[in-house]
């Protein structure tokens, strides 16, 4: 594996899921594998889980991990080629990424979307600049359009909570929020759930259709109550509009998941990638109750990252 940026195929995904579960049982089994190697975790945006879990994963493989908060500690980066840098940017991505490539064996990058420039976001322009200019393997710590380490951890979590032969019914439901939120988690979850063969239904208010590139093969049901019928897993997430790009169309509170919404589910487990705004996106009664898998998902981020780094190390 060279880069880890998205769902590649079912075989690779299943291998990574098994590897992650193996590392959960035996976190230090490969503690010599990364000795003498360094991973640079470069954050252009805030993080708690991704930052800590990736560092722990690298440590369990014997690697050194260096975290750089480029949004606060680095120079303001210019991303466009050929510009006269006489405004706010101080260092060009060509130079910064090339230098980082000489410091590290693997780079891991978080670069959120602008939610204003749809073309650039859809092309994952900023994230791809690091791939283009660093010359080293790159892991996505969440790009403009995908969050694959989160999705891998989510697939591990579903597997841990499902012991039947048939695939579970998985529902991805939109939740209210007061801010314009990226599509990356929802896109990636859909991409991985479908790729792993789950029966996926996506429900959201009208106007919140995701990019079809990620949802082809999912059932789209605009009636949330209907979508939640017979659900085994419900993944809760807000995202802003994709067609009316980056806009908040509604904050309809009735979409926030409570116990009463799950009466016709199959005693569904509830997932969220965190951070979550309690009683806005998801109710206390669900988050603090027996259905919630959110802490287990967050813990599995360690082993997802460990499996991916291990594959890249070879
Ligand atoms: N789920 C997730 O990526 O969390 P952080 O933003 O805290 O890293």
From TrEMBL:
This protein's record includes keyword Zinc-finger? no
MF (Gene Ontology):
amino acid binding; ornithine carbamoyltransferase activity
- Residues holding carbamoyl phosphate: 47-50, 75, 110, 147-150, 273-274, 301
> Looking at the keywords, is Transmembrane helix present?
no
Domain Aspartate/ornithine carbamoyltransferase Asp/Orn-binding per the UniProt entry, residue ranges = 185-310
Identify the keywords attached in UniProt to this record, alphabetized. Amino-acid biosynthesis, Arginine biosynthesis, Transferase
Q: Please give the name of this protein.
A: N-succinylornithine carbamoyltransferase
Residue span(s) of domain Aspartate/ornithine carbamoyltransferase carbamoyl-P binding: 10-160
Q: What is its EC number?
A: 2.1.3.11
Question: Which residues are N(2)-succinyl-L-ornithine-binding?
Answer: 142, 177, 237, 277
Biological process (GO) annotations held by this record are: citrulline biosynthetic process; L-arginine biosynthetic process via ornithine
According to its UniProt entry, the function of this protein is described as: Catalyzes the transfer of the carbamoyl group from carbamoyl phosphate to the delta-amino group of N(2)-succinyl-L-ornithine to produce N(2)-succinyl-L-citrulline. Is essential for arginine biosynthesis.
Q: What family classification does the UniProt entry report for this protein?
A: Belongs to the aspartate/ornithine carbamoyltransferase superfamily. SOTCase family.
Q: Output the superkingdom of the source species.
A: Bacteria
A Pfam family annotated for this chain is OTCace
What is the source species?
Aquiflexum balticum DSM 16537
Which pathway, per its entry? Answer: Amino-acid biosynthesis; L-arginine biosynthesis
